[in-house]
Amino acid sequence: MDPTGWGAPFPIVVAALFVIVLLRSNATYWVGRLVASGAHRTRAARWMDSPGYQRAVERINRWGAPAVSVSFLTIGVQTLVNLAAGATRMPLVRYVAATVVGSVAWAFLYGTIGFVGFEALALLWEHSPAVALAAGAVAVAGLVWFIVRQTRRVDTDPA
User: Nearest to residue 68, comparing CAs of 77, 57, 56, 55?
Assistant: First the structure.
């Protein structure tokens, strides 16, 4: 599904990609909410009602919007973040704002260099799987560093 081969003007391609990813991410959010509702009817309810879990949910709901936006720039993490946002019942106003930002970034990236990036990674893998794995490890390490840095900021915030 290479958007550069759609034969449509660039603004139409970006708009279509924006709508596609916005619908997909919001559907995942609502699946997360449904799963959490179902879990409250099981033995997990006691765990989900614990003070520790409630503190974690509050932090995710308060500071998770940037994580939702950034997740659109990752591969494989976006769905999990959207599912977690729904499961923790992130306020819809924050969630939608974060998904709009992330969807715009995703649409522009995927509509321009995103597909080329996947092709480049595939070619790199064919040439040297070790280098491709190293590039992936560097990307994951960068993401982990960013998340740890953001978490430390939240933990030191007196609010």
Answer: 77
128 Cβ contact list (under 8 Å, min separation 6): none
Reference 69, options 46, 48, 85; nearest CA is 85
87: Cβ contacts below 8 Å, ≥ 6 apart: 32, 33, 35, 36, 39
Chain length of the chain: 159
- 43: tokens are 């033995």
| Whole-angstrom distance, CA of residue 141 vs CA of residue 3 | 29
Number of Cβ atoms within 10 Å of the Cβ of 88: 20
Question: With contact defined as beta carbons under 8 Å apart, do 29 and 82 qualify?
Answer: yes
pTM (2 d.p.):
0.65
38-92 per-position pLDDT tens digit: 887 887 777 777 787 777 677 777 778 888 888 888 777 788 888 888 888 898 9
Structure-block tokens of residue 21: 């990813």
CB 69 within 8 A of CB 77: no
- Residue with tokens 């915030």, as numbered in its chain: 157
